[in-house]
Design a protein that fits this description.
Blueprint (H helix, E strand, L loop, with lengths): L3 H10 L9 H4 L2 E7 L4 E8 L5 H16 L4 E8 L2 H8 L4 H5 L9 E7 L6 H14 L4 E5 L7 H5 L6 E3 L2 E3 L1 E3 L2 E5 L14 H13 L8 E5 L6 H9 L4 E6 L3 H16 L4 E7 L3 E2 L5 E2 L6 H8 L4 E5 L21 H17 L1
Parallel strand pairs: 2-3, 4-10, 4-11, 5-9, 5-10, 11-12, 12-15
Antiparallel strand pairs: 1-2, 6-7, 8-9, 13-14
Helix pairs in contact: 6-12, 8-9, 10-11
The chain binds adenosine-5'-triphosphate.
The site of adenosine-5'-triphosphate (ATP) has 18 residues, from helix 6.
Length: 350
Amino acid sequence: MINEQQVREILGQLQDPFLHRTLEETNGIVNVSIKEEKNHVSVKVAIAKTNTPEQLQLQMKIVEKLKEAGASTVGIRFEELPTEVLERFRGKANEAESRDILSPLSTVKVIAIASGKGGVGKSTVSVNLAVSLARLGKKVGLIDADIYGFSVPDMMGIEEMPTVKNDRIYPVERKGVKVISMGFFVENNAPIIWRGPMLGKVLDQFFRDVEWGDIDYLLLDLPPGTGDVALDVHQALPTSKEIIVTTPHPTAAFVAARAGAMAVQTNHEVLGVIENMAWYESKTGEREYVFGKGGGQKLAEELRTDLLGQIPLGQPDWDNEDFAPSIYEENHPTGKIYLDIAQKVINKLE
Ligand SMILES: Nc1ncnc2c1ncn2[C@@H]1O[C@H](COP(=O)(O)OP(=O)(O)OP(=O)(O)O)[C@@H](O)[C@H]1O
């Protein structure tokens, strides 16, 4: 007959598969109970990241070890370690661990940019926010995960392709931002008709096989809506945060609220809302609210978050020498609004 002390000793020597520390060191043994009459052991274990292949491996190992020690049957439940514990280990992570985006020890701040529907300017906002973070001295990566409607390479005026060396994909660097887009891997702009699981796999590959190097921020331009890809991101990167883009019309905000509600449901912090196409400013400085008014503020209140900024209607001044059609210059009034939003994001996360 196995007793609680023995169970704790056995579990205590096994390692958390992500933190590479024993469960004793991580305080990962949450609960042990034994039903003596049936010789049944049930344990609750906390690890850095649940619902992963690594969890399954650990589960098998626990069953094997406890049965070896005399248990007839074993029941296991897993939960995630509290954020404070993860923070403590993140502080001690080695370089490889802190740079691996999928590791719970990663120090890369991941921000997914979402919208309730297409065409609200999510990609425009993503590229300008990425460039603005870089202008503020941050090392930034951008994934164009809008797999159906990738537009980031065109918006940033990217003409090169990523390089592949030793099975690693090296992103294209543009305006200080490392960029990967589905567009790089599709010939002749062919439409993509993949569904759910395939999309998740592509994203996973962007996290795993792309050599992001040393980055502080990774922005993800998500497909519009509340679809599978957003869920995949939340699942793969539990610490990811979200920014929701909406237009000012109250009904647009209503649709966007669904995207935000999902983030809230899955315990993902919504960093804030950006209202795009907020107004048209005439040469005399008068504002015309072409698409309505107040949607961004309303959405922010609904999601109990902040309105990070409002972007007016307009186009960047095109620079023919360094053509990046959707990117505003730093000293353009809208470029300054993006810088201000980027600063707010930094203040929230650092
Ligand atoms: N503030 C703005 N003023 C004027 N045009 C804008 C503004 N923001 C975006 N646009 C334009 O609106 C169109 C849609 O923008 P964008 O592709 O960024 O949206 P999206 O939400 O990412 O769309 P989708 O998700 O469907 O790809 C583009 O032609 C873009 O140039």
